[in-house]
Amino acid sequence: MVDYGLVTPKLGHSAVQQTQSSKADWLNRTQRFNNTLQEIVTNVMANGEVAKTPSLAKRLVKLMQYDTLLRVPLQGHMTMMAYEVLENPIDLNEKNLYKAQVVSCAMELTQSHFLITDDFDDQAKTRHGQPCWHLLPEVDNLIMNDACMFRCLINDILKAHLEGSVYIKMIDIFNKMNLFIAIGQHLDTMIPKAKDYSLFTQENYDKIVRYKCTFYCLEMPIMLALILCQKDDEATFKRVSYIVRDVGTLFQMMNDFTDFCEEEILFDKTGTDIQAGKCTYFAVKALERASPEQKEIFKASYGSWDPEDVRRIKNLYNDLDLISLYKEQHNFKYNRFLKNVNELQSDDVLAPELFIKLMEASQLNKWKVY
Questions:
Q1: What is the annotated signal peptide range for this record (predicted)?
Q2: Which of 140, 163, 206, 246 is the most buried (most CB within 10 A)?
Q3: How would DSSP label each residue in 104-140?
Q4: Which of 203, 193, 62 is nearest to 139 (CA)?
C-alpha cells in the first residue's frame, strides 16, 4: 500500500467488526439500489417508445447488466446520501425518497453512458474484468447509437417521475453535465491528437479534471440533492464547487496512477494513458521537471503502443521521482479539503456531515491506492 503520510488508526476487534458491518451494509444498499434501478428502467421502457422495438429494449437491458450492475453505484449512492443529509427530516417520506432514488438511478445510468463512450474514445480493452462494451462483436459500430439510446432513456426516466420546476431544473443540470463531459472529452482527446506537448500544462490538465471528473463525479450528486430539497441557488452551487475541487483532482490523479499498475486495481480498468498520449498529471509534471535530454526521450516515446516505449516513459517517471510528488500533492489536497469541511458550521445548508458521508462512500470505493 502506498504511504500517504496520513495517520491511520489501528483497528481493534470491535473496530474490525464495525468495518465488516459497514461493508455488509454497503453491499445491501447496493443490492437494493440495483433492484430499484432495474424496476425503474423496465417500467419506463415498457411505457415508452422503446417498447415498440423489443430488440432495442433487450439490448439496453443487456448494457445495463453488462456495465451498470457490475460496479458499485457510487454516483447513485452519493446522490441518495446527499439527499438524506440535506432534506428536512419531516420531508423524508416514502414519496420523496422514491423521487431521490429515481434521480440517483438516472445519475448512475449517466455514469454508464460516460464510461462506455470514454472506453471507446480511449480504446480501452477491459472494464470490470471483462472486454469493454465496444469490443463485443454485436456492438462494433453501434457503440455511439447505444450511448445515445442510453442518454434518451435517462431523459425518459426523469420525465416519467418528476414534474414542475424540479423537472425543469433536473433537465437543465443533466444537460449541463453532458455539456461538461463533452468538453472534457474534447480536451482529453484533441490535446493528445495535436502532438503538441506545449499543451501539456497544469491549466489544461485542471480543465480536463473540472469538466471530465469533478463536476459530474462530485458536484452533481450534491446539486441534484439540493434541487430535490428545493435548497438550490447559484451561490450554494459555487460553494459546492469550491469545496470539492481538491477531491476531483485526487480522483483524476488516482485514475492517472493506473498506468503504474499491472492489473485493474484502482479504477476497474486497464491503463492505456501512456500509449494514447493522454494529458495526465504525470505527463504534465514530467515535462515540468525534465531536462532537455529527458524531454527528448519523452517526445520520442510518449503516445506509442510499443511496450519498450511505455517502459521508457515509466522509467522516466521514476527517475523524476513523480511518485513522491504525487503522494505529496495527494496529502496537500486531501488535507485542504478536510480543512474546508471542518470550517463549515453545523447549521450550514452544506453541513460538514454531508462531505464526511460522501468521503466515506468514496473510501469504500477504493479511495486509497493499493
A1: none
A2: 246
A3: HHHHHHHHHHHHHHHHHHHT--EETTEE-GGGSTTTG
A4: 62
Which long-range contacts (C-beta less than 8 Å, at least 24 apart) are formed by 44-52? 44/153, 44/156, 44/157, 44/160, 45/153, 45/156, 47/160, 48/156, 48/160, 50/149, 50/153, 50/156
The answer to whether the Cα torsion of 80, 85, 86, 92 is positive or negative is positive
Cα–Cα distance, 337 to 89 (Å, whole number): 27
86 touches 349 (CB < 8 A): yes
Taking only Cα atoms into account, the Rg of the chain, rounded to an integer number of angstroms, comes to 21
Which three three-digit cell numbers place residue 172? 437543465
What distance in Å separates the CA atoms of residue 268 and residue 287, rounded to the nearest whole number?
28
Query: Nearest CA to 316 among 279, 278, 267, 274?
Result: 274
Phi and psi (nearest 5°) for 145?
Answer: -65, -40
pLDDT value, residue 226: 96
What pLDDT is stored for residue 367 in this prediction? 45
Distance CA 84, CA 140 (A): 41
Per-residue model confidence as pLDDT tens digits over 131-173? 999 999 999 889 999 999 989 999 999 999 999 999 999 999 9
Distance between CA atoms of residues 364 and 356, nearest Å = 13
Distances (CA, A) of 75 to 19, 46, 130, 201, 254: 21, 25, 22, 29, 17
pLDDT (0 to 100) of residue 30: 84
Confidence of residue 204 (pLDDT cuts 50, 70, 90): very high
C-alpha cell recorded at residue 60: 439496453
Which tops the pLDDT comparison, 172 or 17?
Answer: 172
Among 269, 278, 361, which residue's Cα sits nearest to residue 313? 278
**Which percentage of the chain shows pLDDT scores above 90?**
55
Query: Which domains are assigned to the chain?
Result: 31-350 (1.10.600.10)
Q: Is 195 exposed, middle or buried (0-12, 13-18, 19+ CB in 10 A)?
A: exposed
For residue 216, name the pLDDT band (cuts at 50, 70, 90): confident
